Structures are given as structure tokens and as C-alpha cells.
Amino acid sequence: MNNDILHRYLFDNADVRGEIVQLESCYQEVLSAHEYPTALKNLLGELMAATSLLTATIKFTGDISVQLQGDGPVSLAVINGNNEQVLRGVSRWNGNITDDASLQQMFGKGYMVITLTPDEGERYQGIVSLDHLDLAACLEEYFNQSEQLPTQIKLFANGKQAAGMLLQVLPTKSGQNEDFEHLSTLTATIKAEELFTLNAPDVLHRLYHQEEVRLFDPVDVTFKCTCSRERSGAAIKTLSQAEIEAILAEDGKIDMGCEYCKNIYSFDAIDIAALYAGSHSSDAQQ
Fold first, then answer.
1. Which of 22, 92, 142, 146 could form a disulfide with 76 if both were Cys (CB 3.0 to 4.6 A apart)?
2. What b/e sequence results for 217-228 when a residue is b if at least 16 CB atoms lie within 10 Å of its CB, and e otherwise?
3. pLDDT tens digits for 161-198?
């Protein structure tokens, strides 16, 4: 059974749609590269679930980035994804973070930046402050600002599993939907443990057993880092010749590390010469 999966669902008698995402393996992949504090592990899980839910609401081929920044102990938390539900993420922090630290305690005065980069068309960016109760409330504010569609979001993570739900009014001519409040009240009763242990059909039955709900085929959610030796080499070529020579003189090589997955790509003087000659040496790869 796949433990990283997203389901979409639709109410037949209401102009409302929903999504459920449940993550485990890809969540652990993101956490494995760093020794994150407990509160930050949970936040990254919520952020992964949120990015998956957001990606599923958008009809485009391309990339999405959900980034949190602030002046608190945590300066950055970001999840990158694409329309194929491939995610990766990382966070930067400095100092002690208590296990029960709130969003504001972690980020201080902060904001969330959501960037949509379609393969074709214009790039879009939305910004929301982090002065709401939690990440879910910040995302609801984002939808209120960007799409003016009533949206409910539930996010959970415990360091091992992450999950989320999204409920949203479909665009209608009237712009009103009397059913959303009722369905939102039902959705609000979902508990973390239920999303961690029940499959999507059971979750929907538990919440909406008196409603007519259509559940669509699931989509796999995966972790994949986009780093490569070629990209690392391209980054080295942006350095000045003086910088490159200084590093080689001191260390004998240049190590390029990926912040997302901790892979290290090493280049010695021969590799550097090959880069500038337009060729590639694979023998020195670590």
C-alpha cells in the first residue's frame, strides 16, 4: 500500500470540492538530510502537505514553491513541488526551538511566499503574513486574497506522518454557496489520528456519510531532489577564476553540497579544467 498519496473528491449535490493528502516516506526523505528540532519537523510536514494540496488545485504544468521566511530562530522553510506531485524541501534555523513552539515563536515577524512558475505563461507570486494562528490559517488567507473562494484547510504532522485536507467552493455565477458552511463544519471534526490511520474512502465516509461524494483516482506523491553534478558544475562556473584558484590552492578541490539532500559533488583541478573545456569527467564524482 502506498503511504504517500493524494485524493481529490467532489460533492455531487454541492458546488464544493475537496482533497486529502497523506504522507510518510517522502516526508521522512525530507527530514533525513538534517537533524531538525521537533517543532520544525512538524512544521515541515504540514508545509509538505500544504504544498501538495495547493499543487492539486492548480491546472498547470510547472513548479510551485511555498516558502516561509522570518526574523526568528527559523529564517527559512521551503517546499518545492511540481504538477506531478514531486516534492523536496529544506529549512534553516539557528538557536533553541522548544518542542511546542508556535509559528510566530519560530519565525518571529514573518511571511509566506507562494510562487507558481508554469512552463508556459507568466510567473505568479502571492505573499501572506505569518500573523495567523497556524500555517493552515495563513493558507486560507492566501486563498481569500488570491482567488476569493471560501477555502478550509486542515494540516497535521507528528514527525513520522503528515496529512492534510482542503475544502473549497467551486466558482459559480452567483459567487455564493450555502453548502460550504455545512460541509466545512463536518470537515472541522477530522482528527489527526484519523488522517494518519484511515484510508481516503474511510475518511470520507466518517465525515460525509450522509452526502453524495465522488472520489477520484489517487495520485502518488514522491520525493526527488533535482540536484546534479551538471548543475553543481554550472554553479562553479559562476565563480571568478580567482575564487576558483584560491579554493583549489587551499583545499585541492571544490565541494558543492546540496542543501536539500546533502549530496556532495567534488571537483578537482582536472574536473574544473574539463568544465571550462566543455567536457565532463564522471570519475571524480562522489
1. 92
2. ebbebebebebe
3. 999 999 999 876 454 577 899 999 999 999 999 999 99
